[in-house]
TrEMBL record:
<keyword id="KW-0812">Transmembrane</keyword>
<keyword id="KW-1003">Cell membrane</keyword>
<feature type="transmembrane region" description="Helical">
    <location>
        <begin position="38"/>
        <end position="56"/>
    </location>
</feature>
<comment type="similarity">
    <text>Belongs to the GSP F family.</text>
</comment>
<keyword id="KW-1133">Transmembrane helix</keyword>
<feature type="transmembrane region" description="Helical">
    <location>
        <begin position="412"/>
        <end position="440"/>
    </location>
</feature>
<feature type="transmembrane region" description="Helical">
    <location>
        <begin position="62"/>
        <end position="81"/>
    </location>
</feature>
<feature type="transmembrane region" description="Helical">
    <location>
        <begin position="191"/>
        <end position="213"/>
    </location>
</feature>
<dbReference type="InterPro" id="IPR003004">
    <property type="entry name" value="GspF/PilC"/>
</dbReference>
<feature type="transmembrane region" description="Helical">
    <location>
        <begin position="6"/>
        <end position="26"/>
    </location>
</feature>
<dbReference type="GO" id="GO:0005886">
    <property type="term" value="C:plasma membrane"/>
</dbReference>
<dbReference type="Pfam" id="PF00482">
    <property type="entry name" value="T2SSF"/>
</dbReference>
<feature type="domain" description="Type II secretion system protein GspF">
    <location>
        <begin position="314"/>
        <end position="435"/>
    </location>
</feature>
<dbReference type="InterPro" id="IPR018076">
    <property type="entry name" value="T2SS_GspF_dom"/>
</dbReference>
<feature type="transmembrane region" description="Helical">
    <location>
        <begin position="246"/>
        <end position="270"/>
    </location>
</feature>
<protein>
    <submittedName>
        <fullName>Type IV pilin biogenesis protein</fullName>
    </submittedName>
</protein>
<keyword id="KW-0472">Membrane</keyword>
Length: 444
């Protein structure tokens, strides 16, 4: 009897699913804590069995091709999990905002949320409740619980710690930037799909050039035939890659690996950042995942995405002015609570210039936090006495224009990348099929 090889690992799928069903039955309303290690062990064993079963099925079905579609599947699953986790954590923050507005203690709301969600969201809500009961601020509790929050959500949480109307602050800020973030996630997911597909194509091309093309050359030499022109160009390209092309390919490969490493570091939040110096500053050495911080390293991205931070700054200043905060103090407060360090430094410089007597609009303009059009509108609004309304409207307009420009660039760039990718695939497929047709014609 012939062995099934890695396919035999599929048998682990049944006990893995059975263990997950048992968890649902016996630990339906309990949250994983340090005192409940049995559920953690059973859950870990179940998911390990399911992973081993899926891994074995993937390797056993298509063998070599599994090295291509398994990483693609894993990346897609991780992206889906991340989106699902973010939606859960956003729901938790919305629940806390509603509770703060109604005067309900946040720790009680977090515990109630943990009882209703027995999975990862319940674990994080339980940790959040414990930190709040220990006297931590909401921003510190969310960092310890490692909630996946976007920049506007972190800004809302940080500002709620220093303002009196916590419920109003959270409720009004949580939905800032939702359209822009959704558009950016769509663009990134499509680009990741193209990148992974291109890497898979590279693996296939290397395999064909090393294994298939030499066989074609030898067959045509034995029969005294000439390879088609397209196939000869592909052979020439493969020889160039072996002799000289690798000198250009290795730097690109190293650059890609470095970009992947930096992206993982920024996404996972495994790094610390200091708060800006000031009388209201607090130590913030925490791990916060935020892909948007990658813009702090690349200047051309900052030039394109400056409206994202400028929108949040203007709308936050509007909220602070509505709560009767003087403008210089509002800038200092915002400089100490803004989530991204680069923007905090720019806000600090603007606040220092305002304290030295410079006009606040020009100070923000110098730090790329206000555009020329917004500068004129804010000057007119300040003279008319409706500055908070103008700040909020200009911030919303900046975010809307950023979303529009991102979608315009995406509509031009993505079809061009897709077309170039398709042309390369078509060229490669035709170059590999023509030798078969030429061989058949030559032997008849």
């Amino acid at each position: 009897m012939q062995s099934l090889g890695p396919l035999t690992l599929v048998i682990f799928l049944v006990p893995g699913i059975a263990l997950l069903m048992a968890l649902r039955l016996f630990y339906r309303k309990e949250v994983v804590t340090s005192a409940n290690q049995a559920r953690l062990a059973i859950s870990l064993a179940a998911w390990v069995m399911i992973f081993v079963a899926v891994f074995g099925a993937g390797i056993g079905t298509l063998s070599f091709l599994s090295t291509i579609y398994l990483p693609m599947t894993l990346i897609a699953i991780l992206m889906l999990i991340d989106r699902f986790r973010r939606s859960e954590h956003h729901a938790l923050l919305n629940t806390l905002a509603f509770s703060a507005e109604k005067g309900i203690p946040l720790q009680e709301t977090a515990r109630a949320f943990a009882q209703e969600h027995a999975g990862d969201a319940g674990v994080r809500a339980h940790c959040l409740a414990e930190r709040l009961e220990a006297g931590a601020t909401l921003s510190e509790a969310t960092r310890v619980a490692r909630l996946r929050l976007s920049t506007p959500m972190r800004l809302a949480v940080n500002m709620s710690d220093v303002l009196t109307l916590r419920g109003l602050t959270l409720k009004s800020q949580l939905n800032w930037g939702n359209e822009s973030d959704a558009a950016l996630r769509t663009i990134i997911s499509r680009l990741v799909y193209l990148c992974v597909s291109f890497v898979a194509l590279q693996v296939i091309v290397i395999f064909v050039m090393l294994k298939i093309l030499p066989v074609f050359q030898k067959m045509f030499e034995e029969f005294g035939l000439i390879l088609p022109a397209m196939t000869q160009s592909l052979v020439t390209f493969s020889k160039w890659m072996v002799m000289e092309g690798w000198l250009f390919a290795i730097p690109l490969l190293l650059l890609g690996l470095a970009a992947a490493f930096v992206g993982i570091v920024f996404y996972s939040g495994i790094y610390s950042f200091p708060v800006v110096p000031g009388s209201q500053a607090r130590s913030r050495n925490a791990m916060l995942p935020d892909v948007m911080r990658f813009m702090d390293w690349l200047f051309f991205l900052r030039m394109f995405f400056w409206r994202y931070d400028a929108s949040l700054v203007l709308r936050s200043l509007s909220l602070l002015l509505q709560q009767h905060q003087p403008l210089p103090q509002a800038l200092i407060l915002l400089a100490n609570v803004y989530p991204r360090p680069n923007v905090r430094r720019r806000l600090t410089r603007a606040a220092v210039e305002v304290e030295q007597g410079r006009d606040w609009k020009q100070a923000l303009r110098k730090q790329w936090l206000v555009g020329p059009a917004e500068l004129a509108v804010l000057a007119a609004a300040e003279r008319a006495g409706n500055l908070p309304w103008a700040l909020d409207e200009m911030g919303e307009s900046l975010m809307r224009r950023l979303t529009y420009r991102m979608m315009v660039v995406y509509q031009f760039v993505y079809p061009a990348l897709l077309l170039s990718f398709g042309l390369f695939v078509g060229y490669f497929a035709i170059a590999m099929m023509l030798p078969l047709f030429a061989l058949i014609q030559g032997l008849t």
